[in-house]
Amino acid sequence: MKLLYRFTVCLALVAFGLMGCSEDKPIDNREPNYGYVQFRLFKAASYDEGSRAVRPTLDYLSEAYKVKVTLAYGETTLAQTINLSASDAESAEFGLRSDKLKLLTGRYDVVTFSLYDATDELIYNGAPAGECSVEVREGGLEVVDLTVNVTPRGAVRFSLTKDLSSLEGTRAAEREYTFDEIRRASITVQNKMSNVRTSFDKLQCKFSVHFDESDAEEDGYQTSSIVCDTTLSLTAGDYRVVSLVAYDASGMVLEVLGNVEGADFSVADNRTTESAIPVALHATDEYIKDYYALREIWESLNGESWYYVGENFPTGSNWDFNKDPDLWGDQPGVELHSNGRVARLDLSDFAFSGDMSPAIGQLTELVELYLGNHNDVNLLTYDPTANEVSLSERRRNRMEHHKEYLSMIHTPTQLSEPCARALAEKGLSIPATSLYADKNEGDIFDLKTGEQRQINLYDTNHGTLNNGLRSLPAEIGRLKKLEIFYVANSEIEALPAEMAELVSCTDLEIYNCPKMTRFPLSIAQMPELVSINISNNVQWSAEEIYAGLDALAKGPSREKIQILYARQNSLEELPASFSQMERIGLLDLAFNKISKIHPLGKGVAPVQLYLDNNLIEELPRDEEGYFCGYDDIETFSVRFNRLKKVPNIFSSDSRFTMVSVDFSGNLIDGFEGEEDGTYKGVKVNTLTLASNPRLTKYPTALAKSNSTVEYVILRACNVDEIPAGSFTYDNSIFLQSLDLSYNNLTDLPREFHAGNMPYFYGLDLSFNNFSEFPYEPLDCAGLTVFAVRSQRNEKGERCLREWPTGIYQHTGLRGLYLGSNDLRKIDDTISTLCYYLDISDNPNIVFDASDICYAWQVGAYILIYDKWQNITNCDPMLE
Question: Do 307 and 357 reside in the same domain of the chain?
């Protein structure tokens, strides 16, 4: 009744106030004579003012969802139940807040309070420890703190740190492991007072490398640690760690530790404790021994002076040992197995010097060792043989990677630019057009002679040294798992006999070691060799290199070797024993002094064979008529030798088509067997006979043997005749392009027509002696590019004046090259279909450009011309 009375009085006063208002004032929405109270509940253990619990202790303050408060207001007792809240259960342990309770102004005494859980079950009764009153003021909010007897709890976050004090001890673990392998940890702790144990199972762990914050010298010393990423709850008290179980990423147990010393910690109520658990490292672990071996290697090779000059790490990088020993494996050029053992060691770009430490023998899990390589000076921006891929992929694609590398260091003889354009118009790309991707005709050829320039010389010059390695120890033989071993551009004088003990080595390189005057015969006893590079060692005498290759061909790997580079040496004779190497797929013997060569026989069928730049006069055949097997051949190159005839070693009846056969740069004047009709022919995409000055006639042997050839390169010979019958044979239909530039031709045979060559699309007759335009090829409807540039007579005078009248009617033509002739006035339609026209260096030409002017202005037509020429009806061309 008292509350109702006061409420009625308040309403009357409000109404009176509204009627009596004489000026505008802000509206006060507060109810007069009322105020608010909010209760806060805290754990008694962490509250400054004590409280007295009259009921059993709560485990967690977050169990309370409602509070029932009993208040005394004068002679009246009030009981009100209100909700409690916190942002989450964790925050609840630091305190709960009630909803606001609306009360009349005045003084209230808190008598008792009760707590209820989420199901409205009574869980706690309590009372203030002493007098607890609150004065409710009109419109105000008063806060009353109540304390609850809750089990005191705090939080702990575990971390694992390295104990290096046991570095001389031995480990009693499930297996050797590296500190960074720990991905989860199960930790059991024991309360020192109650002896109660609490376990935390498989906590997630995060490894990190960081500077040692406890290092007073602040010299950048690095260490590492592991943090469990979960904050855990424990009752307040003092604890010891009684068990630690470490797991790897797969959940396998790494180590079990009991009663960990130095890991005691204390938990205070509502406080977070950081607890570091030490994990001992042991010098007897093989991976730690590997890292000490790395340091010995570094010291033996003048490591303090190392200066990295490669591309995989910052310039000037060196190894850093100013960190915990278990981090020593993290160095430029070092790769590790998942168990921390050294897997790959590449010192190629550090300019190291000295005698390799015997500690190399400790690295028994080493798979790859690079002490220099054939691309030390990075002439190759991309080396497919050193691609950064997994070992399994390198093994699987080894042949393809080396084929790609060979095509890079052996630039194929190129078609002329007009013929290359013809292929491009057809969307075709072959090795004989590969250089046009980033070079022009002038870059590729000497335009005066037609000779191809020597470009893309990737190999290091003999004698250029990039490291000062003097020797390898006998302990190298302990590396039983080593699969790849390179030593290059080095001062080393010999290899130890223990090289023969590298029983897993498949890829071996001994490149440009000018002080190694004797062939290391120990490598011939290595049992698993697949790929060998012993190039650029011209210091080996002809006898030394012969003996070495003969030993390899007779050694335990003879039936396993698939790839052999022995280029840029002093070899004079290819051993007859090579006929035993029947798995050889890639054989590079270029840039030697080979004058005597034995038949390899049918059983040796390389995919790519390079005998370029030698002194070979003939390729002999065995009693079965084979120089080598041909079923797998893609590239057969014997450029720049002393061959006088094209060898009769192939057959047009082969089931397989070779990609390229190249006999350019020899002394060839014909084909073996062409006179008596025994030449067996050839089946190949590209046949190259360029730069054979003794070749004066187009080879009719191709027609008589019914050879299958798509592209013929006869550039820069002295061909002055194409005999009748050269294009009248069954397989002439496969002929698609001819490069006959830089010869002495004056006419073409009438048989040069679509009936014989229906798919013909590229012809270059530039730099010949035509005085009349050769119309014969225009019969080929598919002819795409036709070049007749720079025609000169025997006196060196321009001899071609004739414009091919009506050529606009050839709707398949896309390129016409007529530059450097003596064309005069052109009275003919110029078709925009033939969008590439070269009329440059025609000093007397009068050219009406009206037909193509618009197309030229919008970029749809390419006209090669000189601004001093008489170009009419298209003024923009002369601007």
Answer: yes
Identify the DSSP state of 305: G
b/e string for 516-541 if b means 16 or more Cβ within 10 A?
A: beebbbbbbbbebbbbbbbbbbbbbb
First and final CA of the chain: distance in angstroms?
109
Domain boundary pick from 280, 312, 334: 280
- Domain with 104 in it: what CATH number? 2.60.40.3540
Q: What is the pTM of this model?
A: 0.80
pLDDT at position 29 is: 56
In this prediction, residue 20 has a pLDDT band, given cuts at 50, 70 and 90, of very low
Question: What is the residue whose two structure tokens read 């390229």?
Answer: 660
Residue 564 lies in a domain: no
Question: Is residue 609 in some structural domain?
Answer: no
Please indicate, yes or no, if residue 694 is contained in any of the structural domains.
Answer: no
Q: Between 695 and 125, where is the model more confident?
A: 695
Q: Are residues 165 and 206 in the same domain?
A: yes
- Are the C-beta atoms of residues 662 and 692 closer than 8 Å to each other? no
- CA triplet 533, 539, 542: central angle to 5 degrees? 85
Q: List, as one string, the DSSP characters of 836-867.
A: EEE-TT-TT-EEE-TTTHHHHHTTS-EEE--T
Same domain, 292 and 269: no
Q: How many CA atoms lie within 13 A of 539 on its CB side?
A: 19
In angstroms, the CA 810 to CA 421 distance is 17
pLDDT of amino acid 396: 82
User: In this structure, what token pair is assigned to residue 581?
Assistant: 């190497």
What pLDDT is recorded for position 458? 60
427-463 exposure pattern, b = at least 16 Cβ within 10 A, e = fewer: ebebbbbbbbeebeeeebbeeeebbbeeeeeebbebe
Q: How many domains does the chain have?
A: 3
Identify the domain boundary among 148, 178, 202. Answer: 148
Residue 26 has pLDDT above 60, yes or no: no
Could you tell me the residue range of the domain that residue 250 belongs to? 153-280
Q: In the 3-class helix/strand/coil scheme, how is 260-300 assigned residue by residue? A: CCCCCEEECCCCEEEEEEEEECCCCCHHHHHHHHHHHHHHH
Q: How confident is the model at residue 174 (pLDDT cuts 50, 70, 90)?
A: low
- pLDDT, one tens digit per residue, over 513-529 is 999 999 999 999 999 99
Contacts of range 787-790, beta carbons closer than 8 Å, 24 or more positions apart: 787/416, 787/418, 787/419, 787/741, 787/763, 787/815, 787/816, 787/817, 787/838, 788/817, 788/818, 788/821, 789/817, 789/818, 789/819, 789/820, 789/821, 789/838, 790/766, 790/819, 790/820, 790/821, 790/841
Tell which residue, 747, 731, 611, has the closest CA to residue 682. Answer: 731
| Sign of the four-CA dihedral 238, 244, 250, 251 | negative
pLDDT in tens, 632-663: 999 999 999 999 999 999 999 999 999 999 99
Summarize pLDDT for 799-809 with one digit per residue, the tens: 999 999 999 99
pLDDT of 574 above 80: yes
Which of 47-56, 334-343, 654-663 shows the lowest per-residue confidence on average (mean pLDDT)?
A: 47-56
